[in-house]
# Entry
Amino acid sequence: MKNYQNNEAIDVQDQEEAEMTPKTIWRVFFVLLGLTALEFIIALGFVHTGIISKGPAVIIIYIVLTIAKAFYIIAYFMHLKFENMAFKLCLGIMPIALMAYITILVLIEGNYLKGVYHIWELWTQ
# Structure
């Protein structure tokens, strides 16, 4: 695939391959290792010892770190970093919006079922 800029033909695939050097791959590895280590430090160092209590804040931190790792992997190893911004936003925003939409629907449906069927009383007996 040719990308024409300033009347010069630039081979996009060659540009991508030139930027994925062993140094870049090791940098990506250490960033991912750091994010994973941070997750373990939070889980085993802070939550397990009682410094931070379990709750929505810790879950949100885990979700944000996991999404950051996923996007970092996608950006470098699936070469999304070299795509244009509109394509990146389409692939990044739409799954998050879909997850939020499904979460809201599940919460609404769960609240309805709790009120109609009184399932909670059956579980706590």
In short: Residues 1-83 form one domain. The chain has a mean pLDDT of 78. The chain has five helices and two strands. The CA atoms of residues 41 and 47 lie 9 Å apart.
